[in-house]
Design brief:
2 domains; Arc Repressor Mutant, subunit A; 9 helices; Tetracycline Repressor, domain 2; about 180 residues; single chain; about 80% helix; mainly alpha
C-alpha cells in the first residue's frame, strides 16, 4: 500500500518514464529488494494499479448486471461514481492528467462487452448502429467523468449518474 501511495504521489509530479525505482523506494521508506519482490519495474506497478481499478469497476458493473430483471442503470452508475470518488486521486491520474489511453480503451471495451447485446436484443437498433451509440456514449461518459474530477467532484454522485443517463438518452429519451 505504501508503495502504491508513493508511486501515485510521484506520478502526480512527473511522467512514469521519469520515475525511478529509487525514488519510489525512498519515498516509501523501503529497500529496493522489497520493491522487486512485488514488481518488476514502475510499469509493472502501474499495470497492477490499473488492473485493480479495472477489476473494481468490472465488479461494480457485474453486481448490477447479474439480474437483468432488476437492473437499475442509475444505481449502477451511482456505485461507479462512488467508487471513482473514493479513488479520485488515482482516477484523476489515469483518466485526466497523465491518463493512459490504453486504460481508457479497456474500460470502454468492458462497457461495450456488457451492454452491446442488450442494445441489439430489441431489434430496434442494428449491431453496427449500437457500436456507434456505444462509442458516442462511452467517450462522452469518460469526458463527463474527467470534467467532474477536474471540478473537484462538486456535484453529487447521484446527480452525475442521472446526468449521464440524461445525456445518453438525448432530448427524446428524457420525455415521459
Amino acid at each position: 500500500m505504501v508503495l502504491k501511495e508513493s508511486f501515485i504521489k510521484l506520478l502526480k509530479e512527473k511522467d512514469i518514464s521519469k520515475i525511478t525505482i529509487k525514488e519510489i523506494c525512498d519515498d516509501a521508506d523501503i529497500n529496493r529488494a522489497t520493491f522487486y519482490a512485488h514488481y518488476s519495474d514502475q510499469y509493472d506497478l502501474m499495470r497492477k494499479i490499473e488492473n485493480e481499478l479495472f477489476d473494481n469497476i468490472d465488479e461494480s458493473l457485474s453486481g448490477y448486471m447479474s439480474d437483468h430483471t432488476d437492473f437499475n442503470l442509475i444505481e449502477a452508475l451511482i456505485q461507479i461514481f462512488d467508487y471513482i470518488k473514493e479513488n479520485a486521486e488515482l482516477c484523476k491520474l489515469l483518466l485526466c492528467e497523465r491518463g493512459d489511453i490504453n486504460f481508457q480503451k479497456r474500460v470502454m471495451t468492458l462497457v461495450y462487452d456488457r451492454y452491446i447485446n442488450d442494445l441489439t436484443k430489441s431489434g430496434d437498433i442494428t449491431k453496427e448502429d449500437a457500436e456507434y451509440f456505444h462509442a458516442y456514449t462511452v467517450t462522452g461518459c469518460i469526458g463527463v467523468i474527467q470534467k467532474w474530477l477536474n471540478d473537484d467532484m462538486k456535484k453529487s454522485t447521484k446527480y452525475m449518474a442521472e446526468l449521464v443517463v440524461k445525456l445518453a438518452l438525448g432530448p427524446s429519451g428524457n420525455k415521459k
